[in-house]
Amino acid sequence: MKISQKIYIGFGFVIFFAIVDLIVNYQLSNKVIRNMEFLSRSETILRNSNRLHKSIIQMQSGLRGYLLAEKETFLDSYYAGLKEIPPILREEREIVKGNTEQLRCLDSIAMLHTEWIEYANALIKAKQESLETTKGKEVYMDLFEKKQRRGVGQQLNDIITLKFKEFDQYEYYVRNRRQQRLRDSIRYTNFVSASLAIGYITIAIITGFLVVKTITRRIYSMVSLAEKISQGTFSVIKDQENDELTQLSLSLNVMSQKLQHSFSVLTKRNQELDQFAYVVSHDLKAPLRGMYNILQWIEEDLESELSDQLKKYHTKMRGRIIRLESLINGLLQYARIGRKTESVEIVHVGQIVQDIVELLVPAGCKVNLPSAMPVLQTKRLYLEQVFSNLISNAVKYSNKEDCIITIDCIDVGEYYQFSVKDNGIGIAPEYHQKIFTIFQTLREKNEAESTGIGLSIVKKIVGEQEGEIWLTSQLGEGSVFTFTWPKFTN
């Protein structure tokens, strides 16, 4: 199975549980909302019941006040109730239309109230007529004796009050049950939501962990292989997953095998080069030493028989032999740079420079050194070769009468920048690059002390350390050779 498919499946599980959680939460939320809407509706029912009951009581109070004080103003609340009560009843019936028990109770209240209104209207009419005629007073007294004194109106009012109490008690009962349902649904919703959230988070973590573990384990094996390759150990990875990383594993395996073959070939060639170096250093240099000795013997044994011209030729031949030997030594040294493994160690640059100055700089030459030189983790031999060549050149080309050599160092981030300055003859700008080419020298070819290899060796060593070297000079104004060297060498 491919990695992308594993990732899709993992995310698919997470998305599936997220959708399930969304649906369940939606349904549970709707249930909570329905319970809340019922409670809100119950609040409205109770509020309307209180308004309705209050209006009926106000009508009853207004009627009693009118009958006792015989003032029309007491009937204002009565007439107001006649207008207010019917809309409230209709609204209340609309809200409780699904509850037969409440509808039955409202119908009883409405019927009793209608009966009370008929009784009240008869009393009001009789009272009003009793104030105008004697006959009307007789009718009112008869009605008063038959109904008012017997408590017909009070009985109706008491029954209506009981009905309202019954209505409210039932509504409170249902409301309390709904409140409990609401609390239960909220708790259940929270529990289900938390459980589903924990579930899909757990699945997401497990899926992600498995996918990441599978990928990182294989990537780590590839990184490990790459590190082994960089250290010269060539092996292969066994990968049977047949996914996107398999191609990378196969490529690394092929690269490792090719590098192993190339390394074997290179090792063989290095061995051949080492054999060549041995031949050059022993077999080729031996005839040169023999020739030099023969010339010396001739001069010693036949000195009286040699003409001045022959002695001059002998001196030139001896110089050429010495130069040829120096060229062979320089060439071997140049070829070995980068092939021979040098160990990295802690190097006190100031001590190295001081030792080289004491060895190469004559007593009459003044050397200016910086107050402090860095301590590096680098290859000592290479750094010694660079400073030896540059300081040696500074001595060769300095002003013989007033020789001054200045060595300096500055910190430039990941590198140190060293410079070796002399007050010698200087070098024209057109030769600044040429002097770093092997066998290139600005002196005559027959001068033994200059082979044209020293600066080439310096440039190659600095390049091997990923540094740079350059020359700043003008003819007759001395030279400054500047190079950078890493603070840490792997």
TrEMBL record:
The keyword Ubl conjugation does not apply. The chain crosses the membrane at residues 7-28, 191-212. Residues 279-489 form the Histidine kinase domain. GO terms for molecular function: ATP binding. Keywords: ATP-binding, Kinase, Membrane, Nucleotide-binding, Phosphoprotein, Transferase, Transmembrane, Transmembrane helix. It catalyses: ATP + protein L-histidine = ADP + protein N-phospho-L-histidine. It comes from the Bacteria. It is an enzyme of class 2 (transferase). The keyword Transmembrane helix applies. It is found in: Membrane. Residues 213-264 form the HAMP domain. InterPro entries: BphY/WalK/GraS-like (IPR050351), CHASE3 (IPR007891), HAMP_dom (IPR003660), HATPase_C_sf (IPR036890), HATPase_dom (IPR003594), His_kinase_dom (IPR005467), HisK_dim/P_dom (IPR003661), HisK_dim/P_sf (IPR036097). Its EC number is 2.7.13.3. This is histidine kinase.
